[in-house]
Structures are given as structure tokens and as C-alpha cells.
């Protein structure tokens, strides 16, 4: 029992260390995943801003340069959204946000050739309208992107708090188990020392019943007190008491004679 208790505690400590290591690995992966999503959301936001700016420029002034830049920005946006869908495939809420973002892009950032009307520039009233429309579009897109970032960071905070709580619990359990092992080992050492003392040969005088302690002959009760710290009491055995009574009864008779 003395050896099995510390062994069991050591096995449990090893299991706790393994579990804690696994949780920290998961936490590190989740943190890296969250930062990757947040960076991708910010990158998507920049690409969407470029696309909206180039779209508005093309609608206002026309020209192949605006159209080409718009196409490049929209290609980057679609690539970013594809990566977001891959990273957030297990989150229903985030998939809903991505679908809403995709709808906004298709409806608000598409180019309508009818607005160009073959002219190189548009009236000032339409220019103001397009500018206001672009601002509203980016506000709605930024709202969706902000929701995505907030949800991901909120999940990260929850995971970090859960990991911290698990780490504290694991540390407390480990300290308790280490204390248990230490106490068990101390107890085992104490028992082994006592057994070593008990296994020593003891020399007893066949005539007087005294015990040899080093170079000294001492009474058995004194030896027990010295070597083992035992408290010794004295009494009279039944045989000795009967013998003493017989001697006392026989002594008056001898005196009378």
C-alpha cells in the first residue's frame, strides 16, 4: 500500500500534465486560428474598400484602368471570402455573416453598365448619389465584418478563460498529489527505518535476562525505551505471584519451628 499510493499519484500527475499540455496546444491553435481570421477579415475589408472606390471611379469617369483595378479587387475579395468560408466552416453564425456579406457584395458592388450611358462622365447629382451610396454600402459591409470579428474574439476570450480555469485546477490537483507523494514517501522511509531496527540481532543474557546494548548490559525495559521509545510499565506475572505467596506462607512455618 505504501508503494502503490505514490505510484498511483505519479501516474495521475503524468495524466494531468498530458491533459494540460493538450489543452494548451488546443488553446494555442485556437488563438492562432482567431488571429488568422481577424487578419483575413481586415484584409477583406481593405479589398472591399478598393473595389468600391474603383467601381465608383469607373461609374463616374469610365476608363479601362478603373475597370481593371475593380476586377482585381473583386477577385481578391472573392478569394478572401473563400478562405473565410474554409476557416469558419464549423460556425453556423459566421457562415450566416459570410452569406450576408456575399449578398451585399453582389447587390451593392456589382457594376451596372446602364449607368454609364456611353458618356465619359456623369452629372454631378448622380456623382453625389454614387458617393452616398458607396458610403452606405461600406457602412453595411463594415457592420457585417465587425460582427464577424467580434464573434471570433468573443469565442477566443471564452476559450482563454476556460483554459486558464483548467490550468489553475490542474496546478492545484498537481500540488495536492505531490504533497500526497511526499507524505507517502516519508511514511515509507519511517517504516523502513523501523523495520531495519527490528531486524537487528539482539543479545540477551541467558541467566539475568539483560540485553546487550553496545558494550553495556541493561534491563530489557530500559533497552526498549532507548531503542524504540516505548513506554514500559511493570507488573507481576501469575507464576511469580503464586511463587511469592507460597514463599510467604512457608516462611512463618519455618520461623515457628
Please tell me about this protein's structure.
By secondary structure, this protein is mostly helical. The chain has 2 domains: 4-185; 201-257, no CATH class. Helices cover 79% and strands 2% of the residues. It contains 6 helices and 2 strands. It has a two-stranded antiparallel sheet. Strand 1 and strand 2 form a beta hairpin. It starts with a helix and ends with a helix.
First and last CA, distance: 69 Å
Structural class: mainly alpha
Taking all Cα atoms into account, the compactness measure Rg is 46 Å
- What overall form do the CA principal axes indicate? rod-shaped
What is the averaged pLDDT score?
79
Note poorly predicted spans: none
Task: List the keywords.
257 residues; mainly alpha; 2 domains; two-stranded antiparallel sheet; 2 strands
Describe, in short, the structure shown.
With 257 residues, this protein is mostly helical. The protein has helices spanning 4-61, 64-87, 92-108, 124-198, 220-228, 238-256, and strands at 211-213, 216-218.
